[in-house]
Amino acid sequence: MDASEARRFVVLDFYRFVAALGVFIFHLKLIDTGISPAWNGSYGLFVDMFFILSGFVISYSYPSDARGVAAYSRFMIRRIARIYPLHLLSLLIFVVLIGAGLERTARSTSLDFVYNLLLLQAWGVTDHLSFNSPSWSISAEFFCYLIFPLLMLLARKVQPVVLGVIVAALYLLLAHGHLPIWQERSQMYGANFDYGMLRALPSFLNGILLAILFRMSHPYRHKRMIVAGIGLFGLSVLVLNVFAKPDLAIVLFSCAILLTAVGESAFKEFPGARLLGRLGNTSYAIYMLHDAILIAVFKPLWTWLGLRPDQFGLYALACCAVLTIVADRTYAYFENPARRLINRWADAAAPSSRKIPAAAAAETSMRFDNPERAVN
To answer: Where are the transmembrane segments (predicted)?
Structure first.
């Protein structure tokens, strides 16, 4: 990819922020059995949108001339620098919560700790969630990172229409086939510890396909496309709130991401980019820390205040605000500095002949997946 094309898609960043809060509300609603069914949306499916966005951003930002072991090693170091520090922090937080008797998952063993430490907990090696349960999706993403060169090789060898057929076939097989790893059809959309890495695979490859289509869209990029993209994203949120239709949600997510990227690329700078970017920066910490804060703070506070189910809306709004502030500070003082430190160590340790020039390593900064923001 030409480094001059590298950009940050701040509207897609904002989608990720909304989706991270959606996953939080999906878990927060469990604090009281009397909470209205109106809150029982299938917001857990936002995780599948994360996988699509990851495939889109990483493949879009990956240098087209990157080949060989050195390029793959640099890619993996940057991916680990991106996801691992906060994963490790959240894992240790749950160790403390377990020690304090607050952790709600009783089946967190020493072997589970090893699986989580190695990011293997979504690979079918266990029969339960453990420690920071949302981190299963980070394990699934890690699997996609490991096989990323193979996915890119496939994407470069076949025509986009053929890749589209492969993506559709993967969704059909994994989501609706009678596979022995899952007991029911469509169980893929609920998979986490039970081969959740296979749940990530079609969506991650779908994101790679969308990046290819985005590159092909250059003659058609217009600012008005952003309206269609935002509208489709809003429709996808409505679908998740009212209907549990995962296949429809995947289609809407995909169209919203592509149209939004196409429309946003027509702006030299999108209005409100700084605010949207900052909110986007909080998305990973919101996702990774929300369960610990829910267990340690939000759930006990709900009980202590004696709140009623009909007050859940205002309570959820307040919790979202608090969680966003915590995530913002976590990004500023831990997540981003840790990523930069690891990348500096890796650059300093790499032989000069194997270092990738800065221009070749330029990447977009969709925060949830980008190893290093071009704007930083």
So the answer is: 12-31, 43-62, 83-102, 136-154, 161-183, 195-214, 226-244, 250-267, 279-302, 314-334
The domains of the chain are located at 3-354
The residues, ordered by sequence, that sit 6+ positions from 60 with a Cβ below 8 Å of its Cβ are 1, 211, 214, 215, 364
- Rounded to whole angstroms, how far apart are CA atoms 255 and 174? 21
Residues 6+ apart with CB under 8 A from 209: 55, 155, 160, 163, 164, 167
